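User: Just a sanity check before I run the rest of the batch. Below are the structure tokens for the first item. I only need the designed sequence back.
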């Protein structure tokens, strides 16, 4: 074999190893260390809406969370703990009779952090 072919084969092997390392290794190794909202939903009911959030904890330790839901300027705050690997289902009922502009802001914080890890805005339409 010529030196050029040997160099080409070695280069291809190195590129293959690097591709495997870049794409496969991060998926296999390590445990997730974050919190997330796995599912969120806004369900229409006869007299309003139901906001549902499934908050999961992958931090490796029990974590405290605070949700702040603001409906038309009125704030509703709740704190709760989620064990490591656990899921907490947060439910908030929104009555359509007291709705004015229909803006709903949702913010979720982890204990000790000032920046939220999840936030969102819903715009609800009052039934005529």
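Assistant: Here's the designed sequence for the first item:
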């Amino acid at each position: 074999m010529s030196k050029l072919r040997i160099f080409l084969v070695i280069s291809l092997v190195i590129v293959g190893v690097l591709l495997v390392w870049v794409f496969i290794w991060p998926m296999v190794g390590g445990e997730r260390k974050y919190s997330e909202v796995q599912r969120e939903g806004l369900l229409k009911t006869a007299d309003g809406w139901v906001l549902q959030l499934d908050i999961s904890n992958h931090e490796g330790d029990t974590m405290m969370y605070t949700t702040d839901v603001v409906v038309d300027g009125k704030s509703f705050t709740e704190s709760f703990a989620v064990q490591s690997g656990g899921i907490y289902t947060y439910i908030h009922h929104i009555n359509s009779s007291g709705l004015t502009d229909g803006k709903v802001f949702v913010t979720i914080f982890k204990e000790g952090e000032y920046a939220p890890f999840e936030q969102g805005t819903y715009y609800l339409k009052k039934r005529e």
